[in-house]
């Protein structure tokens, strides 16, 4: 969803560029008082992070400013998880396995996806960063997870996801276990979803629960037909 920046987004952007972590957190807290922290992640912070990402690509953001942006996102994620809208209810669906593919350390997007899935009632086994392809499969088999969600931010790391698909095929698990893929590179190159053998993608954490609902349905349709 393309979103133009409001004055609140602009203010948050200014605070992040000034490396004012306390000021940025205070603004987010005020906003979340009214709308909740999961909404603060998707509606307030994410458009600003996207703008920072674009400026980063144009070399207009320093590593230090990028670092502060990451810390503020982590602060908000922690609050979203701790708040009633993020974690109050016990999980009602799952488990599902999620992680960043091998050699990928862009944790922010994955953490947001995990937060939104948990808020929507999914039991998520979060494997963290730098997860080898075989580890996704081993953990899915061990926990009887029916969806594997793989995050990748770089072209070179995204291509490794193909090995997850090949291993699912080799073990006869394709269909029964659905493969969700996502991350900035899939937005830039939508054809990559098919190239790596993904069953579906979502371009934001907000859209991830709907994707997982659909893949969960497909995984169970396949089992019922078998
Ligand atoms: C922040 C950042 C970093 C931080 C990461 C901090 C962290 N803890 O995550 C640091 C500084 C560590 C970093 C390092 C590097 N980075 Co970097 N980084 C970025 C940056 C600026 C933003 C990424 C981000 O966090 N976006 C915000 C999040 C919220 O959005 P998102 O990731 O897209 O996630 C959303 C969706 O995609 C979706 N989603 C994500 N995962 C999944 C998974 C599933 C299953 C689903 C359904 C959905 C989904 O939901 C998320 C939330 O809404 C991007 C630029 C950009 N425009 O993306 C470059 C970028 C990704 N990095 C890049 C590079 C090259 C690197 C380095 C190699 C740089 C270097 N020379 O050292 C290293 C590699 C580290 C590694 N091995 O992983 C390149 C990749 C180029 C490419 N296409 O291959 C980019 C595009 C910058 C650029 N233009 O060159 N980086």
UniProtKB/TrEMBL annotation:
Pfam families: B12-binding (PF02310), B12-binding_2 (PF02607). InterPro entries: Cbl-bd_cap, Cobalamin-bd, Cobalamin-bd_sf, Met_Synthase/Corrinoid, Meth_synthase_dom. Residues 93-226 form the B12-binding domain. Keywords: Cobalt, Metal-binding. PROSITE patterns: B12_BINDING. Coiled coil: none annotated. One of its GO terms (molecular function) is metal ion binding. The keyword Coiled coil does not apply. It comes from the Bacteria. Belongs to the methylamine corrinoid protein family. PANTHER family: METHIONINE SYNTHASE. This is Corrinoid-binding domain protein. It comes from Geobacter sulfurreducens (strain ATCC 51573 / DSM 12127 / PCA).
């Amino acid at each position: 969803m393309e979103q133009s920046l409001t004055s609140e987004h602009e203010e948050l952007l200014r605070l992040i560029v000034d490396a004012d972590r306390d000021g940025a957190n205070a603004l987010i807290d005020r906003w979340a008082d009214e709308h909740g922290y999961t909404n603060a992640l998707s509606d307030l912070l994410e458009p600003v992070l996207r703008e920072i990402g674009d400026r980063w690509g144009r070399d207009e953001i320093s590593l230090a400013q990028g670092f502060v942006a990451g810390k503020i996102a982590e602060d908000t994620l922690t609050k979203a998880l701790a708040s009633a809208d993020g974690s109050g209810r016990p999980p009602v669906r799952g488990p599902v396995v999620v992680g960043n593919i091998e050699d990928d350390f862009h944790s922010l997007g994955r953490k947001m996806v995990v937060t939104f899935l948990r808020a929507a009632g999914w039991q998520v086994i979060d494997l963290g960063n730098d997860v080898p392809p075989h580890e996704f499969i081993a953990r899915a088999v061990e926990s009887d997870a029916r969806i594997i969600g793989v995050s990748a931010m770089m072209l070179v790391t995204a291509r490794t996801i193909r090995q997850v698909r090949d291993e699912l095929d080799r073990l006869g698990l394709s269909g029964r276990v659905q493969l969700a893929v996502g991350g900035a590179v899939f937005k830039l190159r939508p054809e990559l979803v098919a190239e790596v053998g993904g069953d579906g993608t979502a371009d934001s954490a907000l859209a991830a629960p709907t994707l997982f609902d659909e893949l969960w349905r497909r995984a169970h349709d396949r089992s019922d037909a078998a």
